[in-house]
Amino acid sequence: MSTPNDVGADLWAGFAALDNATTSELVWEEPIPLTARRELPVFPTEVFPPWLREFVEAVAEETQTPVDMAGSLALAVLATAAGGRAVVHIRGRWREPTNLFVVVALPPGNRKSAVFSLMTNPLYKAEALLATEAAGRIVEAELTARLATEAADQAATKAARAEADKRDELVAEAVGLAQAAEAVTVPARPRLLADDATPEVIASLLAEQGGKLSVMSAEGGIFDIIAGRYSGTPNMEVFLRGQAGDRLRVDRRGREEFIEAPALTMGLTVQPSVLEDIGRIKGAGDRGLLARFFYSLPVSLVGHRKILPDTIPDTVADTYEESVTALTLSLAGWTDPAVLQLSPDAGATLVAYEERQEPRLRERGGDLGHVRNWASKLGGATCRLAGLLHLSTHPDNGHTQPISADTMRAAVKLSDYFTGHALTVFELMGADHTANRACTVLETLRANQWAEVSKRDLMVKLSRSEFPTVADLDPALDLLEDHGYLRLQPVQRTAGRGRPPSPRCLIHPQLSAPAV
User: What one-character-per-residue DSSP string does 59-120 give?
Assistant: First the structure.
């Protein structure tokens, strides 16, 4: 007959046997799949003319970065050159400007600043050339304005001291001179680019630059400014109107000014966490800020990079710089925008694309229904892309010939690329972060084929930016256990004073089996 002590000993022996059992000896049910991560499309560099495609691919090779980053920034560079200086006439009264909002998201360590610098350098060169060319006109206008003001002031003084019978005549003369002085316009120093400036500064720069400006930044600080982190209130009006080309009112130099058709471009490289943050900006979704961006979320190459990659050939770099500079300078002189027409075949290609897209926007059954604020703008956005591709292909005479069907098909290919990335980005903005982290852990378990692993060893393999502490790992492990991918084991505490052992996880045999 067994005593209570015997029963207790048998129970503990059973527990010990279970603890010592191998993963394969345990009974495992088929795990419940987590939501699959989307297979993101790769940037289609073939849409670019040779001079641009070769440079984009060479930059990606030398910096060992995804080609998506250089490709997306190339579009922002073209939009900086053409924004506000060319519009696409689609049909009827429908016209689209050629400015864009583009944002590329990659984790730290992906050489965003290096790529950004290589892609934007010709814009700074063009800006300097424009400033040099305008310097003489600015000096002349400043001198004219100063002399006119002095003449008006002298006339006003003379009128104030005049005898009563001559005062009216002198006052009229002084008023005329004051009006003439007021009418003298001193042109602003030409400027193409701004960085993380406040909305008020951007609005003022737009006003002085004739409504044309590009915000280019290798960081995401502009989103903090839009969100009102420093002012306390979100301020996105200039960005909403600047992208759409809607009339903008600006208070400048103590007076009210209007920009009839502002053309603001944005080209940004940020960390993925910034995309999550902008999704939380109050009003960003409802007012349409999020819907105005093209998003690119390429796969990082860190850990798979060549140590000695091919460098950018000098001829490729020189051709890129010359082409961007020439295109920018040639369009800078346009006061009224060039109107780019669609060929009949290009128009038919666009209609076919719109007919393909429309059912996808349905609230029920449409795969873009949940992002239709963004996707409903794709028809116009595709035409903007077509205009930029057309100008890059025909930099000397693009305004004299229509946009071809091939160019429109290339623009559609770009729109399909950005659509694939936007779906993932919008999921990220409203994401269940636990599910995302669980997917990351699951991929790590598959890659390492462990039968079991401690939390401490698992943390070593995970990115600290995504899992700063073990507390960030625990919810993901709990979710994976709920789905049957692993089993969390109780901590076996020792009697000593040393560091307690790290909790361990038994891994489903499917994850530890070699790939067939």
Answer: HHHHHT--HHHHHHHHHHHHHHHHTTTEEEEEETTEEEES--EEEEE--TTS-HHHHHHHHH
Share of the chain above pLDDT 90, in %: 54
Closest-CA residue to 66 (of 273, 295, 302): 302
Give dist(CA 469, CA 458) in Å, integer: 12
The Cα–Cα gap between 106 and 501 comes to: 35
Q: What is the mean pLDDT of residues 437-446?
A: 89
Q: CB-based contacts of 497: which residues, under 8 Å, 6+ apart?
A: none
How big is the chain by its Cα radius of gyration, in Å?
A: 31
Distance separating the N- and C-terminal Cα atoms of the chain = 53
Question: What pLDDT score does 8 carry?
Answer: 44
What six digits make up the tokens of 232? 């306390």
CA distance 220 to 74: 18
Does the predicted TM-score (pTM) go above 0.70? yes
Pairing of strands 248-252, 255-259: antiparallel
Contact (CB, 8 A) for 243 and 255: no
Mean pLDDT of the chain: 88
Please name the amino acid found at residue 312: I
Q: Is 251 helix (H, G, I), strand (E, B) or coil?
A: strand
Q: Which helix (H) or strand (E) holds 269?
A: strand 263-270
Query: In this model, does residue 77 exceed pLDDT 70?
Result: yes
H/E stretch holding 454: strand 452-454
CA-CA distance, 245 to 413, in Å (whole number)? 25
Q: Are 193 and 80 in contact (CB under 8 A)?
A: yes
Using the structure block, give the residue that is written with the tokens 């008006």. Answer: 152
Cβ atoms of residues 269 and 218 within 8 Å: yes
Q: Quick one: pLDDT at residue 37?
A: 61
For residue 504, report the phi and psi dihedrals to the nearest 5 degrees.
Answer: -120, 155
C-alpha 6: how far from its chain's center? Answer: 68
- The CA distance from 411 to 417, in Å, is 10
